[in-house]
Write a structure and sequence with these properties.
Layout (H helix, E strand, L loop, with lengths): L2 H9 L1 H24 L8 H14 L7 H17 L10 H13 L2 H21 L7 H80 L4 H26 L21 H10 L3 E7 L7 H21 E12 L3 E10 L14 H12 L3 E6 L5 E8 L4 H8 L2
Parallel strand pairs: 1-2
Antiparallel strand pairs: 2-3, 3-5, 4-5
Amino acid sequence: MSTSWRHRAVTRPKALDGALLVLLFAATVTGVLVTRAPASGPLTLWPGLALSALSCAALNRRRSHPLTVLAVTALCTIAVGALGYLLTPLLMGPLLVAQYETSLRTPRRTGWNSALIVTGCVVVSGLLFPSFLHSVIFTVVNPTAWILLCAALGGYRRVRREYAVARAEHADRQREEEARHRVVQERMRIARELHDVVAHHLTLADAQAGAVKHLLRTRPDQAQEIIDRLPETTAAALRELKATVGLLRHEGDPADDLAPAPGLDRLPDLVDSFAAAGLRVGVTVDGERRPLTPVLDLTAYRILQEALTNATKHGAGRTAEVRLAFAPRRLTLTVTNDTAADRTPVPSGPGSGFGLISMRERATSAGGTFHAGHRPRGGFQVVCALPLDLPPDRRDESAAP
């Protein structure tokens, strides 16, 4: 079908339907004339033409009332056969179209039951009112084959249509589930960011306030220095909170003032912030340092930040060791510190402690491994191995701006 005909079929469906019915009526009239010519006896022409016109006119309602239209066309066809006309495919055209539409638009059982009933009626009428040639093939086999063939074609088209609808519904459900999954993953990611930011900066502020209270009488100069650094801690917390909450903005909201995601390049600033809280952090880098993807860089930074935050809250000593080991295919992060005897130790199980859960989820989402627990000789250690090649499902995220 050309483009112009397709456009007409879409824009003028009633005109196209009327044209098809006119062509069907012409084919039915041709069947009447072809059957009348070789008949052994005289056949009246006008009843055949009138019944053919009635059958084609009834097809206008074949979509809304398929069973009624099938009954009307079947009665007209039986009447034409009773007049002595041979039931050829041309003469049976309206009945065949009605049977096709019935099998297409009704349930499977209804379609086949109607086809069997119509076939039985046509065959019985052919045996009671035999047309010329008195042939069983023309009287029984020919109508039966054509009616059942149209019923099978209509049923096949109905099954194809139902299958297409089922596939579309399944695709819609799958898209909705995928969208919900992405929303859940995004919420979890934002929750991890908020937890890390709030826990880190509030712990630093609390540690700095405690140090000021301890040093205010004995070392006022050092206490004043810590107080001077408190605004830096709170300002950094506000910046990171603003950047994280900015992820919840709509696409049309301005986000030019959002700070970029932190990475290992800010590790010296992170170490200095903990030093202001009284935790001395030593950093060791093994291997040749390599540039990381934005997602991997943020993951490594957040894990180190959370591990040092836990060391500030639970550490017995005031020192911690950070080791970055760059291998050809992975980056290993190790944070070691002493555990306080008078405080609740940080549990190493997978289901306890939001800090450990956050670090474990970050490492797993990047395709790495995570372990946290007490060392045999005392202290607490966090070890995380991150692959330098992201898993396929995270590469698009790392490439996003």
